[in-house]
Amino acid sequence: MAEFLHTPLTVLHLLACAFLILVILIQPGKSGGLGALGGGQAQQVFGGSGAGNFLTKTTWATAAIFFFTSITLAYLSSSSDESMKKHSAALAKQHDQNNPLSSTPAPAKPASSK
Asked: Which of 17, 52, 79, 81 would be a feasible disulfide site paired with 56, CB 3.0-4.6 Å?
C-alpha cells in the first residue's frame, strides 16, 4: 500500500511546493514593517484586515497540503518494511565491520559418544 501512495504523494508534494513559492512571491508586501508601529498605521498592522483575500486563503490551503504531504511522506519512508530491512542490514554490516570476531561462527561441540 505504501508503494502505491509514495509516487503520487511525492508529485503532489513537489507541485504544492512550487505553487506555494509562486503564491507567496506574487502577494503584495504589507509595507511599513516596524516603522508602522509609531503612528496611526499601527491599527492597520494589528487589525482590520478582515477575513483575508483570495491569495491569503490560497497560501494557507497550499501550506496545509504541503505540511500534510511532508508528514505523510516522512511516515511512509520511515515505517515501511523495506526501509526497516535496509536499516537493520546496514547496522548489521557496520557491526560486523567494527567487530570482526563476532562474525566468525562458534566452533562446533564434539559429539558425545554413548
From this structure: 52
Residue at 98 is within a domain: no
Q: How many CB atoms lie within 10 A of CB 23?
A: 18
Total domains present in the chain: 1
Distance of alpha carbon 4 from alpha carbon 20, whole angstroms? 25
Let me know: does 100 contact 58? Beta carbons within 8 Å: no
Q: Quick check: is 106 in a domain?
A: no
79 Cβ neighbours under 8 A, 6+ residues apart: 2
Residue 104 lies in a domain: no
Residue 11 CA to its chain's centroid (Å) = 14
Single pTM value for the model: 0.55
Domain that holds residue 20: 1-27+54-79
17-58 pLDDT per residue, tens: 999 999 989 887 766 445 545 554 544 544 545 446 888 899
CA 40 to chain centre: 42
